């Protein structure tokens, strides 16, 4: 396509944790875009950021910011997306939103290009959403296994990175670590808590040298919003509205990359050999599974990469229809920015 | 009992991570012991350690160390326990072992005093064992729930502290943290790994700013020894030899206190209200469960305490017979030293 006919892309929330990664991703993927317009809160307007090797000035979020925009990628808090996505649509843009604002809206498809690419075609509100980063840690691998074995039940536990709570989450972990590292802290009652004081930032408890069984806000009956997002998101992307899903979300002192343990029960009997084949050949998934050689995915290896990494593939010892997996994925890349960029590319491809 | 008739206790492995905690525990519990003899490898012999407010000299492990000993608590590696526990028995002692050496031996009871106290009576080999620390993180709460609802299936994921790998584990985490803390590390590919280098100590991967889905040695079919210990231990303590148990064990950068997510399915329908009552009133268990007020257990709060802490109690949304829990327990105390001390006290009480 001649450059003059290429679609204009707006990145809304260009200065945030996900927005920053989105600009890196747009700079490295096949360049299908005409103008890439950077948009952020008025407070950040005028800042210059690099994208595709060039500096671009950040425009203030407002109605005019969407003039002439074909696709708008939103990487902003829920309430900002709820307010401004319809404005962007009214100005003629298709919106791809990474927030929770529209995920459960029945008129907004929840899209993972490797799993349900056709979902982008039906978008009565002009809005497409990506699932939460925790669902995106497993859903590509799970979709491939579901296609062959037929998923029947999920039990999931998360090991979620602090960058899932944005820049404030990362800053909080770094501050807390600088207070506790190199000391004898962490073995006696209350010493981590004393060192950290009230500086728990976006987390309800200290996260350095600790794990916190809570992510998101209170939903109902003791469930957190992150846990509900995994259940709702998995059901919606896989088209299994009654799938039993039990989730516990836990924050861990990792900067970036969410990890999950997955107990997945299927319609049919599974074999580890076939499961490993499916995982190894599924687009967007890497099998990393040789415990004898010390090979399994960890956040330290997965950070900055695009695929879902899967290891520890075992058949449940007491159920020939169930698999155990450990999955890792970069929560800022496939967990948010990359998935959104892929959706936007798919929308453009469908138009041609 | 007059002090002269009180039983003699030997603590074998008195200088190790568990042994050190055992001496603190023996110093604070009701004092039923005559002599407390400290035993360790010849390398540590002659060192002086405090117990019950007095200094005691460490004796070298050897046949003579067990002369006149009534009870011997072993807190040593598996192979040392396998070699020396029978020696202690031959010299007339009852052995309480915290290692894995005898756990699966059908002639060695696996004892958790709150759950199966009567098991101490039948000890044809003169040896009693405690379960692994991961099983001990949940088994007291689970035993109470089982007594009422009838346990039918378990899916467990662990968040295991580095002190589970002994002093070397703690030293490794501290060293790694001092290398990565206060820097911008942890966000770019490979930077944690580069900073840590080959200094992964007893762990197969860096554990600072990371989670490692592996604990123990390779068992078979991709399962780790820690995962098998949870399945075997839970079945044996609860007397449910065919209980389906699916476990994934993961190491996290926490110094002390193991945490678990537990998906427990029962024979009968459960209610959260009754489950919380059972947990709140079970001896050795504390209910800490008010997410609205930010209350759930975390290692930073639980370290140094005796009970199992349970929070995040929910009924599975798609299965009225299943509960979700998050449990924390000090892996050096109830997870090892405290449970052993309780078993020893139970043996003495049964004699009287």
UniProtKB/TrEMBL annotation, chains A, B:
InterPro entries: Asp_semialdehyde_DH_beta, NAD(P)-bd_dom_sf, Semialdehyde_DH_NAD-bd, Semialdhyde_DH_dimer_dom. The keyword Amino-acid biosynthesis applies. It comes from the Bacteria. Keywords: Amino-acid biosynthesis, Diaminopimelate biosynthesis, Lysine biosynthesis, Methionine biosynthesis, NADP, Oxidoreductase, Threonine biosynthesis. GO terms for molecular function: aspartate-semialdehyde dehydrogenase activity; NAD binding; NADP binding; protein dimerization activity. It catalyses: L-aspartate 4-semialdehyde + phosphate + NADP(+) = 4-phospho-L-aspartate + NADPH + H(+). Its EC number is 1.2.1.11. Gene3D superfamilies: Dihydrodipicolinate Reductase, domain 2, NAD(P)-binding Rossmann-like Domain. The keyword Oxidoreductase applies. One of its GO terms (biological process) is methionine biosynthetic process. Signal peptide: none annotated. Belongs to the aspartate-semialdehyde dehydrogenase family. This is Aspartate-semialdehyde dehydrogenase. It comes from Streptomyces lasalocidi (Streptomyces lasaliensis).
């Amino acid at each position: 396509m001649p450059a003059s006919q290429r679609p204009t892309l707006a990145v809304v929330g260009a200065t945030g944790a996900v927005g920053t990664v989105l600009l890196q991703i747009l700079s490295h993927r096949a360049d299908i875009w005409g103008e890439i317009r950077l948009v952020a809160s008025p407070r950040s307007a005028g800042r210059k950021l690099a994208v595709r090797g060039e500096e671009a000035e950040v425009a203030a979020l407002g109605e005019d910011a969407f003039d002439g925009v074909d696709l708008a990628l939103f990487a902003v808090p829920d309430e900002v997306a709820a307010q401004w996505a319809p404005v962007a649509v009214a100005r003629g843009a298709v919106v791809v939103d990474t927030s929770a604002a529209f995920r459960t809206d029945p008129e907004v498809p929840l899209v993972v290009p490797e799993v349900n690419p056709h979902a982008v075609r039906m978008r009565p509100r002009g809005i497409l959403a990506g699932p939460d980063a925790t669902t995106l840690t497993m859903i590509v691998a799970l979709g491939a296994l579901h296609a062959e074995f037929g998923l029947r039940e999920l039990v999931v536990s998360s090991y979620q990175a602090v960058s899932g709570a944005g820049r404030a989450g990362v800053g909080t972990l770094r501050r807390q670590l600088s207070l506790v590292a190199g000391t004898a802290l962490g073995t006696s009652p209350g010493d981590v808590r004393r060192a950290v004081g009230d500086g728990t930032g976006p987390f309800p408890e200290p996260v350095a040298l600790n794990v916190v069984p809570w992510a998101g806000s209170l939903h109902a009956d003791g469930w957190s919003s992150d846990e509900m997002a995994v259940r709702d998101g998995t059901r919606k992307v896989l088209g299994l509205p009654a799938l039993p899903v039990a989730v516990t979300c836990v924050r861990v002192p990792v900067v970036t990359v969410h990890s999950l343990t997955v107990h997945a029960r299927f319609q049919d009997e599974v074999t580890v050999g076939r499961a490993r084949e499916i995982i190894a050949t599924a687009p967007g998934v890497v099998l990393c599974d040789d415990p004898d050689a010390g090979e399994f995915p960890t956040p330290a290896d997965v950070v900055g990469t695009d695929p879902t990494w899967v290891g520890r593939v075992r058949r449940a010892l007491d159920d020939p229809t169930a698999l155990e997996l450990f999955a890792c994925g970069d929560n800022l890349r496939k967990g948010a920015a990359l998935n959104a960029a892929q959706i936007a590319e798919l929308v453009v491809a469908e138009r041609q």
